[in-house]
Amino acid sequence: MSQALNSIHPKLAQYVPFADALAETLGASCEIAIHEFSHPESSVVYLAGNVVGRQIGSPITEPLQLQLQLYGDNVPNICNFTRRLKDGRNTKCSNIFIRDEQGKVIGCFCINYDLSLIEAMKKFTEEWIPHEDKTENLSEEKYGGISHILEQIISDTLSRYSKPVSLMQKEHKLKIVEVLDEKGVFLIKGAVDDVANAIGVSRYSVYNYLDEIRAAKK
């Protein structure tokens, strides 16, 4: 899909040939979207292919917005994760953030690959060559991969501590919950249960930690 390149940030425009080449190489099941974050309400400035159903001028997605809110210019790339679209299709995705010369994040190069044909081939193969292991390998993540992002944030926070969770005292776990609260993690639905499982306490303990932390800041 063509776009007037003089309307795109020059740094982002450099990635347009790569978007076209990758989409052409991978075929009709692939879509490449380039986002420009200076105008989030219409952040999609270039599209090669069409999988998700967006258009040039579509707004920034919720997961991208959440990543930027939590990490700012230090936002990490997230590659090779799966997500489910609203119509039930599974896609394989990667988000690569683009920075200017000062290190400021200005946009994102997003790869979305529709797995429908691969899944159909897998199903056909399994019908003809049955396997004992019927485990489904695709995740049931919501559109945008918020669950994947939450998992990564919790993992990154835990990795800062040298002690394994099994040896942590309450004060260590309290500090972890405080750091996650400051990042806005508990605004995400289901985050309390995920954090509780990660640090080996009950969800009620996490709520108690939050009450204790927030009371101390008043």
CATH topology of the largest domain: Beta-Lactamase
- The CATH class name of the largest domain reads Alpha Beta
Strand order of the largest sheet: 2-1-5-4-3
Write down the overall geometry: globular
Report mean pLDDT, rounded to a whole number. Answer: 85
| Architecture per CATH nomenclature, i.e. the level-2 architecture of the largest domain | 2-Layer Sandwich
Number of helices: 8
Oligomer: single chain
> Could you name the ranges where pLDDT drops below 50 across 5 or more consecutive residues?
134-144
Our count of domains comes out at 2
Give the ordered list of helices and strands: HHEEHEEEHHHHH
Q: How many β strands by DSSP?
A: 5
Would you summarize the structure shown here?
This protein has eight helices and five strands.
Describe the protein in words.
The chain is α+β, with helices and mostly antiparallel strands. It has a five-stranded antiparallel β-sheet with strand order 2-1-5-4-3. Strand 4 and strand 5 (105-114) form a beta hairpin. 40% of the residues lie in helices and 18% in strands. Helix 5 (146-158) runs parallel beside helix 7 and helix 7 (191-199) packs across helix 8 (203-216). The chain has helices spanning 10-13, 16-26, 62-71, 116-128, 146-158, 170-182, 191-199, 203-216, and strands at residues 30-36, 44-48, 78-84, 90-99, 105-114. It has eight helices and five strands; from the N terminus they run ααββαβββααααα. It has two domains: 5-121, Beta-Lactamase (2-Layer Sandwich), CATH 3.30.450; 146-216.
